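Dear support,

I submitted the protein below through the web form. The confirmation email said the job was done, but the results page showed an empty box. After a refresh the structure appeared. I'm attaching both so you can tell me whether what I see now is the final result or a partial one.
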Amino acid sequence: MPNLNDLRTPALLLDQAKLQRNLDHMAARATALGVNLRPHMKTAKSIEVAKLATRGQEGGITVSTLAEADYFARAGFTDILYGVGITRDKLADVDAIQDLGATVTMILDNFDCAQDVVTRTNDLSGRFGFLIEIDCGQHRTGLLPDDAQVLQIARLLDGARNCELRGVMTHAGHSYNCDSIAAMREVAEAERAAVVAAAEIIRANGLPCEIVSVGSTPTALHAEHLTGVTEMRPGVFMFGDLFQQSIGSCELEDLAVSVLTSVIAWRDDEARAMVDAGALALSLDRGAPDGNGDYAYGMAADLDGRPLPGDLRIRQTNQEHGFLPGLKQALRVGDRLRVLPNHVCSTAAQYDRYHIIDESGEIIDSWTRTGGW
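What the results page shows now:
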């Protein structure tokens, strides 16, 4: 295996020990809360990570693209939740994925769309299962629990020839806006209460509602209980990032992914290094404030993953260039650093593989990841 000085940069590094600790922690949370863990793979997009994340679980996963669903189905994953609202044009692709041996569950939150979907399934060979998406406070997608469309969609699916109602789901994405653990617990309870209320309404009308699903790393970590819920779907917990660290969902030492980068220029007059990790390598997500309330593109660390003194961050990017000001000691062209990401989902998206490192920083493996839609 090459070492960190041999890799062509920028390169995506994954610390296997930190990954495993993060996975073990969330598995213990699911057990303590009495729910199944259906990890969301939209961040990792990796078969090897999915195998580790589902070890000791029922084996179900969540995805956010049909490319992911196909990728994981071909690797033998048979219980897949496609966690983005379905439209009729994608049903033939879902049918083809199910022909690989997987069961794909989809989500709906609109009666007119549900009618179109049901009509389309009559022309296809498979059987299609759905969850109704509930809005628990984010107001992005989903229906309020007592919206009349919830029962309308439930009855439509239950009576359709090739469709079945499998349950309800929600996502408390607004938990990312919380500024305290108490606030996250409050959002977690609102998330739980909303989806359980919808399930109770459906069951009270004589309709099936087997799955009651919640998701988000902050609420999964801080929910006080999940009474009435059957599963949770966190994803970014596997890797952590600066944003999750800033809101209390992980510690800096939990961050399992970093970007290996090379110094490509040095300015003495500005004490500034330029690295070959820019907007494409790090993403343009500025979602993690530092201690001064400023925003940047990632935190600079040494080759061992230790943040450089002074909480130094990439302050500016071009497409392939990152600017690192404020250094107390000059860096040489060719020196190597690691950058801890603000939003690991967006950062990892540009790469086709992880270089797996052990606790000593040695490269021990390479795991491919999928992409596209």
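Response: this is the final, complete result; the empty box was a page-load delay. The domain at 34-238 is CATH 3.20.20.10 (TIM Barrel).
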